[in-house]
Amino acid sequence: NKGTIAKIDENGTEVHYYCKCMKIRKTLFEAKSSGLKAVLSSFTFKNFTTSEPWQRAIKDKAVAFCKDENANWFFIGGQPGCGKTHICTAISSFYLKSGYQVKYMNWCEDSKKLKGVINDFLLYEKEFSLFKKASVLYIDDFLKTKGGEEPTKGDINLAFELINHRLMNSGYITIISSEKTIEEIGAFDEGTMSRIFQCTGQYK
Description:
Elements: E1 4-8, E2 14-18, H1 21-34, H2 37-40, H3 53-67, E3 73-77, H4 84-97, E4 102-106, H5 107-116, H6 121-132, E5 136-140, H7 153-168, E6 173-178, H8 182-188, H9 190-200
Parallel strand pairs: 3-6, 4-5, 5-6
Antiparallel strand pairs: 1-2
Helix pairs in contact: 3-4, 7-9, 8-9
């Protein structure tokens, strides 16, 4: 139960190999760390309802994104209940099972925490880097505010800093769900919108 298997090679030397169970263990650990463990088993591609053509289109695009090795950005915007969280969780699950570290960001809650420590530079950078530098980042309810009001200047600055950092550092995978369309995001900040539009390409 140590994660390795000991074998004797052709020279009579004991060598240790990782057991295949380690991949399963790593997936379970990363799922817990990601913040998505509670919904991973139910929010799957298989369980996603496709009774309507637009639902089928969403699922097809998400599956194609997972299969595309060159795709790093996925965006879905729309009203509550259209399956945004479900499909983004299914994508996140794919990357977890593929061995990636996935970080979940609840925009409404986590942006508030970050804004609360913005005057403490070291703490702010430490906390924000968890999202900035995540191998796979899933941002849920992007630019949503607790009271339903429009995003503040602080929200916009935070969003731009995060999106721009991940754009400028290639290799990161970013999954975004929002109750706002890309056009609505553009009404708040053209810079953030243009970066999302540019990066997501066909996967929006």
